[in-house]
Amino acid sequence: MSFLLVWAYRRSMRPSPWLAALLLILDVLAFNSLIAVYGAASNPFNAVLLIPVVMAFILLPPVYAVFILLVSVAAQTLQIWLLPVHHHDAEMVSHFYAMVLSFVITSAVIAGVIFYFRYQLTQREASIQQLRERQLRDEQLLAIGTAAAQLTHEVATPAQSLRFLLEEAAEQKPNPDWLAPIVHEFSRIETELENWRGVADAIREKRRSDYLISEIWQTLQHVISITRPEVEVKWLPYAYTGHELIEADPTLAPALSSIVTNACDAALESNTPVTVSLTLARGRVLMAVSNYNASLNEAQLAALGSRIIASDSGFGVGAVVSNATIEKFAGEVVWQREGQQVVTQVSLPIKSLPIKSQPNQD
User: Fold this and answer.
1) Which of 59, 123, 290, 356 gives the lowest tally of CB atoms within 10 Å of its CB?
2) What is the annotated signal peptide range for this record (predicted)?
3) Is the pLDDT of residue 314 over 60?
4) So where are the chain's domains?
């Protein structure tokens, strides 16, 4: 039966675990019956009983493998009761007891070693799979970043031409009524383009700065109040000393605001508020964003932020970019469900601002 299982697995024919376990149990019973006839525990070839045990721990889930190990140990122990039938003296009987005990210990050691290596192999495969997903995500982000950089470069020339046209229009007397609003909106476009160039330069040169958590908190409130004024956002107060810093680059604030914005978009469909809280614990800042969302299932939550996935509300690009950005600063983003609420938890390391000592006054 064992060779039949090997033949099946080599041809990619995987029987169900219970069927494979049944075949191995038949092997255990057949081997033990054969050994019982020819000397019982005194048979020097009882090591052949290790074959089903080894195959069980290699091919079957742990529960089935442990059951086969127990059956094999029990069958080998029964061989001791058959020793009087073969008429051995006391010294030989003690030797055969030791052989059975040696078989039990050897089976347990082999089972433990195989189980350990299977566990290590499973962990390594999971790490490789996670590495592949991260590599795929990085490739997708690189494509998005390349497209964004190309778009910025292509927009720069028309923007300069439009600026010249607006300056010529401003020289006309009197100025048209439509000119001032257009100049104002176009100035915002130029500011965003300039900010994008600054962010791109900081990323390319790997420049990082220290940001006060209180300033980031205020920036988030300001950005959300402008971009999503129609959504009720509850900003819970938090206790801080004012000296907590986060080492990051200019992409941190957009990444955090993107997480809150996504929560606002999801809450807007159900007309429910979004709750944002901030806590400090164990040298890290923890931001929790809670919003109502009944459409995301557990599989989508598990994949959110790790790769681009299609859904009714988009492809999750914002979550992927935010997750990659926060991971760059040794942070972590976790999405989990609490009832009808989806809670996004962001964790980032912090450091304290050194307090300057005041000179003594004489």
Assistant:
1) 356
2) none
3) no
4) 2-131, 136-205, 209-352
